[in-house]
UniProtKB/TrEMBL annotation:
The keyword Lipoprotein does not apply. The record marks W314, W368, W391 as: Electron transfer via tryptophanyl radical. GO terms for biological process: photoreactive repair; response to light stimulus. This is Deoxyribodipyrimidine photo-lyase.
Length: 485
């Protein structure tokens, strides 16, 4: 009987899993193996919110495998060097020795440290005489498969999307392979032994999420039945569920872009008044663009993509201001609502993500890396490619970025996208009874502000905007215009 190990990572599903399909087709028995080795990811090991999701996603995958008379094999890798039997390579070699496997199949990840680790593992196992194969399970196209006419990586989204858009319509998902003949590893660890679940109280508020393949499909069904029909406008309104909320499911590979697009097309195939799916597919394209950038420019999680920003003078790190920002106590209602939503649910509406990032990097002039790291620890959808791209986009230092002089005005933004203040009232109870415009700018009535117990603004929006523009002009060496939203 021939045996292959399928090395699960962030592809925690059975359907549309190319590594699992290929292993099943080529070998008599498949061993589904998850190796826990966060030390191999350096400073970008999963944050607290991601670990919570990972625990439940692994449990869900194990449940799915039990329906096929098997179970997920879990191994906690030793932190010792691979040469001493440690790390992912050591864990794989031990599993190979124990099971007699002659192949290791896995789906690709694109984070810089993981790429280097995987290449070393591949070379070592091939030198051991094993059949090693890797597949694309998380993107429409591998990052190196899309380039400009000159063969260069894209730096602007729109031409990237035009290229990618021509490639995706014919990509259908793979079915769950059946039958699955599953094997075991003699010394598999217990999932609880990985100690992924945090002890912080905020994890109790995550009950609105259902990690796992089944939860991803349920979330997609909800989106198809309602929000996708008005996605182009509804996605900007934080008080309603106008987005797909699939980002954590996509990050952990519980669902793929191929599955999402295929399911939406099938859902509306016979309807006369089917909604336009392009605005949503385009957002999935932005996710793909983030991975394209990370592959070609692996320093982007820590360094400015636009090197001209290396001359920009950020303000001195302000621990007090940073703490108020993290706690949702800046005195800017829409920002505080977003930061409190993040703490309570591990997620934040995308429009609000831009506003909280703009306040931190422009009005407070704190370096974007500080915000990036906080999001990394608190988001259930923390994704290295898209987290870095998003923060650099707002800060003005990234690819196809919002110009630095485009400074979001949080008051006009909340008046536009949360006109009745429903989102603010939900997450900032001090302002639940605020009349009219005061829900957006409570400092305009000093008596009300005092009664509410809500803090005064951490910064004057107008003067801090001017200070940011001055700093930007000095860095650029030339006057810069300004826009205001």
């Amino acid at each position: 009987m021939t045996t292959a190990i399928v090395w699960f990572r962030r592809d925690l599903r059975l359907a549309d899993n190319p590594a699992l399909v290929a292993a099943t087709q080529g070998y008599d028995r498949v061993i589904p193996l998850y190796i826990h080795a966060p030390h191999e990811e350096g400073e970008w090991a999963p944050g607290a919110a991601s670990r919570w999701w990972l625990h439940h996603s692994l449990a869900s995958l194990d449940t799915g495998l039990k329906h096929h008379r098997g179970a997920l094999q879990v191994v906690a890798a030793s932190t010792s060097a691979p040469a001493d039997g440690g790390g992912s390579l050591g864990a794989l070699r031990a599993a190979i020795k124990a099971t007699g496997a002659t192949a290791v199949y896995f789906n690709l990840l694109y984070d810089p440290l993981i790429r280097k680790r995987d290449e070393k593992v591949r070379k070592a196992l091939e030198a051991d005489g094993l059949d090693v194969a890797s597949f694309n399970a998380s993107l429409w196209c591998n990052p190196w498969e899309t380039s400009t006419k000159e063969g260069e990586p894209y730096r602007v989204f729109t031409p990237f999307w035009r290229n990618l858009r021509t490639r995706i319509d014919e990509q259908g998902p793979l079915d769950t392979p059946a039958p699955l003949h599953l094997g075991t590893v003699p010394k598999s660890d217990d999932l609880d032994s990985l100690a992924l679940l945090p002890t912080l109280d905020w994890a109790k508020g995550f009950d609105e999420w259902t990690p796992g393949e089944e939860g991803a499909q349920e979330m997609l069904s909800l989106f198809a039945d309602d929000a996708v029909g008005h996605y182009d406008t509804g996605r900007d309104l934080p008080a309603r569920h106008g987005t797909s909320r699939l980002s954590p499911h996509l990050h952990f590979g519980e669902i793929s872009p191929r599955q999402v697009a295929d399911r939406l097309r099938a859902h509306f195939a016979r309807r006369k008044n089917a909604p336009d799916l392009e605005p949503y597919l385009r957002q999935l394209g932005w996710r793909e663009f983030g991975h394209h950038l990370l592959w070609h420019f692996p320093d982007t999680p820590k360094k400015n993509f636009n090197k001209k920003f290396d001359a920009f003078r950020w303000a001195k790190r302000d621990a007090h201001a940073l703490r108020r920002w993290k706690q949702g106590k800046t005195g800017i209602p829409i920002v505080d609502a977003g930061m409190r939503e993040l703490w309570a649910t591990g997620w934040m509406h995308n429009r609000v993500r831009m506003l909280v990032a703009s306040l931190l990097t422009k009005n407070l002039r704190q370096h974007w890396v500080l915000g990036e790291k906080w999001f990394w620890d608190t988001l259930v959808d923390a994704d290295l490619a898209n987290n870095a791209m998003g923060w650099q986009w707002v800060a003005g230092s990234g690819a196809d970025a919002s110009p630095y002089f485009r400074i979001f005005n949080p008051v006009t933004q909340s008046e536009k996208f949360d006109a009745e203040g429903a989102y603010i009232r939900r997450w900032v109870p001090e302002l639940r009874d605020a009349p009219g415009r005061l829900v957006h700018a409570p400092w305009e009535d000093a008596a009300f502000l005092k009664r509410s117990g809500y803090p005064s603004p951490i910064v004057d929006l107008k003067s801090s905007r001017e200070d940011a523009l001055t700093a930007y002009q000095k860095a650029r060496g030339a006057p810069a215009g300004a826009t205001r939203e």
